[in-house]
Design goal:
Length: about 240
């Protein structure tokens, strides 16, 4: 019976994931010259879905994960507004846009601030009991970082300790300055890319993070180069380090 219940839970979860929303783009950057961001919510399911909208704050830790927080000195919530307010109904296989506006900058110290646009859909299935199986409403949530830069911002990146852990490399990416860095890490050996990862961020509140990056199967590490290249939407920072084993 336990195996049956587990299988039912997996099937229900897979069904929800297959019919969950898609949100684009995956992040936004606002400043005094670019005060608006538009997000598109696409509903691929066969029913109309209401999505609730709010802002939340999340704090980044050294492992790169972010965790909800009620007190965040880099919060951008008070300086942002979204529309429509609170909720949006998206037709089956339809799409709607959510617009975020930068409202004010005056009292902020120069630097970078961040909050997350929280888009949440609640499944319409009501909690019920059928034999030994309990069905519960499922909530899917998307949290999209919205960054706000004010005044003079600066950052520098450095690759710190790099160690091998089995078939992966543990890469320490360090940051200095009053803004985040955001980009890709590429590892090359003998002019061949042996590992890469995109969309790595070290946010304003963090000084470093560690990335666990698997290398291509069968590669024996000898003399390789690790590069961080910042995405054009964030800046032009680069950092590299060559390791000989």
């Amino acid at each position: 019976m336990k195996n049956l219940l587990f299988l039912i839970v997996i099937l229900l979860t897979s069904s929800v994931l297959a019919n969950s929303a898609m949100v684009f783009p995956k992040r936004a950057m606002l400043d005094s010259h670019n005060r608006y961001a538009t997000f598109t919510v696409y509903n691929p399911s066969d029913r109309d879905v209401q999505y609730n909208i709010s802002f939340v704050d999340r704090l980044q830790t050294e492992d790169g994960m972010t965790h909800s927080t009620e007190s965040f000195s880099y919060s951008a919530q008070k300086n942002l507004r979204y529309s429509p307010r609170k909720k949006v109904m998206v037709k089956s296989r339809g799409k709607k846009t959510i617009r975020v506006k930068l409202t004010k900058l005056g009292q902020l110290t120069d630097g970078e601030y961040r909050s997350y646009l929280n888009i949440r859909a609640a499944d319409r299935a009501q909690s019920s009991q059928e034999g030994d199986v309990k069905h519960s409403a499922v909530s899917m949530s998307f949290q999209i970082p919205v960054l706000l830069r004010k005044g003079k911002t600066h950052a520098a990146a450095e690759l710190g300790e790099i160690t091998q852990a089995g078939n992966a490399l543990l890469i320490e990416l360090k940051k200095q300055g009053n803004r985040s860095i955001y980009g890709n890490i590429i590892i090359t050996q003998d002019d061949e890319v042996i590992a890469s990862v995109k969309s790595i961020a070290v946010y304003a509140e963090s000084e470093k993070r560690t990335i666990n990056l698997p290398i291509k199967e069968g590669v024996i590490l000898k003399n390789f180069t690790v590069e961080f290249i910042e995405d054009e939407s964030s800046g032009k920072i680069k950092a590299s380090k060559t390791i000989t084993i």
